[in-house]
Design brief:
With 307 residues, the chain is α/β, with parallel strands linked by helices. It has 10 helices and 9 strands. The strands form 2 sheets. Strands 7-6-5-8-9 form a 5-stranded parallel beta sheet, with helices on one face. It has a 4-stranded parallel beta sheet with strand order 2-1-3-4. It binds N-carbamoyl-L-aspartate. N-carbamoyl-L-aspartate (NCD) is lined by residues 53-54, 125, 131, 134, 163-164, 225, 263-264.
C-alpha cells in the first residue's frame, strides 16, 4: 500500500484491499505472533463525535499489537471548547503519538487535517462523507461469508447521510459487485456518488424503493441506520423513521444463505428475532473490526505500505 494516510475508500485499489484483508486473516489466525510487534507505539484517538465500536476496536487493536493509546477524550473536556481549530489540535497531538485516528462531524475534516500532519492519519468517519476502516471490516466480513467474487449485494436505509455506505460502494466497484441501493427517494445515494460509480468501469448499480424487488437475488443485505443527527430538520427525519425494517419473517423470501450485515448501532431496522438466525452477521462484523484494524495499523506503522 502506497498511502501516507487513509482518508476515503476511493484511494484503495483492489490490491490494497486484498493486502489488508489477507493481513487481517493472518492476524486473526495467529494473534500471538504480533502481540509485541508494535510495543511502545502510541496511537492518538481524536473523536469529535460519539463512537463505541470504532474507538474501542482501534484501542483494542493497538493494545493487541503491544502498543497503547492517548485519547483526546470527549470534546466537552478538551480545548476544542476554548475555540481551538482542528488544524491546531491535530498538530499538537501528532507530537504525542505515532499515528492518529480522527472522527469528526464535518465532511472533509480528515482531508483537511492530514495536510497538517506527518504521521499516518486514519479517517474514522467524517460527517456524511467516508468511513474507510469500516469498509475494510465490512469487506472482510463479506469475504468470509459470501465471498467477494460474483457478489450481488443490497444496501438499504439511509444512503444519503450514511458514510459507511459511501465508502463501501466505492470499494465494491473494484470487485465488480452488483450493487442494489434500496431507500426512500429522499435518502437516495448522493448524485455525486452515483456519478462517480458510473464513471468507474466496475460499478454495476441499480436503485430501488422496495426491498421486495431484489431480496431474492441477494447474497448480502447491508442495512443501515437512518442518521437522525444529520437531518437539518427533525420533521424530515420523522417522515422516514421506521421505514425499511426487517425481521426473521422477511427472510422467508430471501436466499437460504443470505448474509445480513449492519455497521451498528441499530435502532429499529433489524428486529432482534433475526439475531438468532444464520443470516445475522452483524455482531461477527463488529468483532472483525479488531483484526482488520490491527492489520491496518500494522501496515501504516511498519512502513510496509511503501513496499
Ligand atoms: C457507523 C458510523 O459511525 O458511521 N458506525 C460505526 O462506525 N460502526 C454507522 C452509524 O453510526 O450508523
Amino acid at each position: 500500500m502506497r498511502h501516507d494516510h487513509l482518508i476515503t475508500s476511493k484511494q484503495l485499489s483492489r490490491a490494497d484491499i486484498e493486502t489488508v484483508l489477507d493481513r487481517a486473516a493472518e492476524i486473526a489466525a495467529d494473534p500471538d505472533a504480533v502481540a509485541q510487534r508494535h510495543a511502545g507505539t502510541l496511537l492518538g484517538l481524536l473523536f469529535f463525535e460519539p463512537s463505541t465500536r470504532t474507538k474501542m476496536s482501534f484501542e483494542t487493536a493497538m493494545k493487541r499489537l503491544g502498543g497503547d493509546v492517548v485519547d483526546m477524550g470527549s470534546v466537552e473536556s478538551s480545548s476544542v471548547t476554548k475555540g481551538e481549530t482542528l488544524a491546531d489540535t491535530v498538530r499538537v497531538i501528532e507530537g504525542y503519538a505515532d499515528a492518529l485516528v480522527l472522527r469528526h462531524p464535518k465532511q472533509g475534516a480528515a482531508t483537511m487535517a492530514c495536510e497538517y500532519v506527518d504521521v499516518p492519519l486514519l479517517n474514522a468517519g467524517d460527517g456524511a462523507g467516508h468511513h474507510p476502516t469500516q469498509t475494510l471490516l465490512d469487506l472482510y466480513t463479506i469475504r468470509e461469508n459470501a465471498g467477494l467474487e460474483d457478489l450481488t449485494i443490497g444496501i438499504m436505509g439511509d444512503l444519503k447521510y450514511g458514510r459507511t455506505v459511501h465508502s463501501l460502494s466505492y470499494a465494491l466497484a473494484n470487485f465488480e459487485a452488483r450493487q442494489h441501493f434500496i431507500s426512500p427517494e429522499s435518502l437516495q445515494l448522493p448524485r455525486e456518488v452515483v456519478f462517480d460509480l458510473h464513471q468507474h468501469g466496475g460499478a454495476q448499480i441499480r436503485e430501488h424503493e422496495s426491498l421486495d424487488e431484489v431480496l431474492g437475488d441477494l447474497d448480502v443485505l447491508y442495512v443501515t441506520r437512518i442518521q437522525r443527527e444529520r437531518f437539518p430538520d427533525e420533521n424530515e427525519y420523522q417522515t422516514v423513521a421506521g421505514e425499511y425494517q426487517i425481521d426473521a419473517e422477511t427472510m422467508v423470501d430471501a436466499n437460504d444463505d443470505l448474509t445480513v450485515m449492519h455497521p451498528l448501532p441499530r435502532v429499529d431496522e433489524i428486529a432482534p428475532d433475526l439475531d438468532e438466525t444464520d443470516h445475522a452477521a452483524y455482531f461477527e462484523q463488529a468483532h472483525n473490526g479488531v483484526p482488520v484494524r490491527m492489520a491496518l495499523l500494522d501496515l501504516f506503522l511498519s512502513g510496509d505500505r511503501n513496499e
